[in-house]
Amino acid sequence: MDSMTFVLFGATGDLAKRKIYPALFNLYLNQKLPKSFSVIGVGREQLSDVELRSRVTDSLYTFSRHLINDKSKKEEFIKKFQYCQLDVTNTEGYKKLLEHVQQNEKDHNIAENRMFYLSVAPEFFEVIALNIKKSGLGSTDGWKRLIIEKPFGHDLKSAQELNEKLSKSFEEEEIYRIDHYLGKPMVQNLEALTFANPVLQSLWNNRFIANVQITASEIVGVEERAGYYDKAGAIRDMVQNHMLQLVMMTSMHLPKQISESGIRNEKRKVMKSLRTLNRDTVGVHVVRGQYGPGEINEKFVPSYREEPGVEASSQTDTFIAARLWIDNSFWDGVPFYIRTGKRMMEKETKIVIEFKNPLKDSYTSEMEKVKPNLLTININPNEGVSLQLNSKNPTNGEMEPIKVDFAASKQDVPEAYELLLFDALYGDSTFFAHWDEVELSWRWVEPILEAFKENRVPLHSYSAGSMGPDAAHQLLEEDGFKWW
Ligand code: NAD
């Protein structure tokens, strides 16, 4: 691909500033963008091109992974930006946007390849997609693609309705639903780890694995997002999308062909084998919590209910732990535990695979210190893989766990948005959420939403700065395990 136009709706917003501009810039520095391209920023405010470029420059100085050593490169880059003021609900206004895009394509000899990135509130997804079609922006000689961010619906029904509406303007193959967890380099690396290493590949099943634990914990509280978060909770904000995507990525099996459709098919199989919860089982397998006051980094922090914008009686979950069963021949009998929450002790996303120990019974008493073999995939904030093995300490002859570690150097690791934008620009949707996955995830989550709504699952309080409520620890203790 030699050329394209990147139409960014929500160009003056927070996501554009923190993620999209720096990602585009880093791709540009690494010569991964097409030779000829323009970015047309769309927003409600009245701005000149110069003003937009100045905002982009500020964003690069603050958020870019690569430092701006070469100012001429930065200048070249920001010259690619233009602004078009448009209220996205005003159908007439899209004509002006179309003329702008067409004129620019002519002036810069850019083919009609158009990427539409909707970095705006989800209530605008539908109206923008519709107007892209109506105005003719979507009728191109080249390709057109749509990138959208979560949330994708609020429940199964609203997600289906949204999808139905988007599909009037874009084919499924043209829709790139960002789940930024899928853009994290170590999540993308899961595929290589399990598929390219026969050692791991042969152990990746219920004969050798005792359980799988996926944790995504945050230190921050609800911050300024109470308006959205209090209606969503951890179940919608994290479990329906990111956590289930991590379950799929960890448990899928080697497709016959390692291709977009092969991988998608395997992910779909996982979701179809995920044991459905019902009225009676939600409370057995799902723990919900909400943070109370506590101390983090020696600083007192208030409870969720005391946060600005949150009602004093809010029943919203800020923590979820759950036990999942994948009923297929590979994973039968292996519990997958997930947990995610705000205001926890540390910021960490990781996957731990705990292996079985079939030799345990033949050990002598001195070998009782033997620990399980653990494979840990660190996703965030540090990227790496480590394998815990048992070994005798050569100095005192005692058995002790040792770690074989790989950690990536922080500065060299691309941001999730960089990898995802690159893939979308080149038409590779492997690491985006396909509609089938989104729909099956909502289906799985639906009985939990219902149980929460009807208050059939206790809402446990946990201290800010802890690793969640006791009930989350009991969930594993019941099975003879503990969180690693
Ligand atoms: P924001 O409120 O900072 O920005 C919204 C943008 O939409 C602004 O550029 C504004 O001008 C534009 N806008 C609003 N109403 C408009 C209208 N009628 N016509 C034209 N433009 C209009 O929001 P954000 O934080 O950048 O988030 C954008 C999207 O990304 C949301 O869907 C959000 O849920 C999602 N998201 C954001 C983050 C993040 O880190 N900020 C993370 C994940 C997902």
UniProtKB/TrEMBL annotation:
Instruction: List the catalytic activities from the record.
Output: D-glucose 6-phosphate + NADP(+) = 6-phospho-D-glucono-1,5-lactone + NADPH + H(+)
Q: Enumerate the spans annotated as Glucose-6-phosphate dehydrogenase C-terminal domain.
A: 192-484
Coiled coil ranges (UniProt) are none
Q: Which organism is it from?
A: Priestia flexa
Q: What is its EC number?
A: 1.1.1.49
- Residues that, per the record, bind substrate: H180, K184, E218, D237, K342, K347
Annotated metabolic or biological route of this protein:
Carbohydrate degradation; pentose phosphate pathway; D-ribulose 5-phosphate from D-glucose 6-phosphate (oxidative stage): step 1/3
Q: What is this protein called?
A: Glucose-6-phosphate 1-dehydrogenase
> Which superkingdom is the protein from?
Bacteria
Q: What does this protein do?
A: Catalyzes the oxidation of glucose 6-phosphate to 6-phosphogluconolactone.
